[in-house]
Amino acid sequence: MNGRYNGVTMNISFTMPGAGKLAYLPQLSPEAKKRLKWFDYYHRCRNVSLTCRYFGISRKTFYYWQKRYNPRRLKSLEEKSRRPKNTRNWDVSRSNLFLENPASHRKTQPILQSRKNRETKEKTKEKSV
User: What is the domain range of residue 113?
Assistant: First the structure.
């Protein structure tokens, strides 16, 4: 039969119980691994003050991460993004700027007029020559 049974190759190997779950373990950052060590130590000694003193962290920090920690979801030990989810879409146009700052409109208006006058003067010079 040459290692074939019913046309399908047989795989003879041992599968460890729970090996399927190991494939889905997240890759933790060094900071998250450090936090995981905090909780391992805490579960051994059952004393928050000793744990915080041992790792050199404040109890406020420990309780913050304890509230977020979910043993079935290790990604909960990762830092959340501090970037704002929604940002304003800025609509800056010349008309909006003139409405908000009429003083700036007065300053730019003579410049625009002088350019127009220059163009017209040059055109009249060309015609007269």
Answer: 94-119
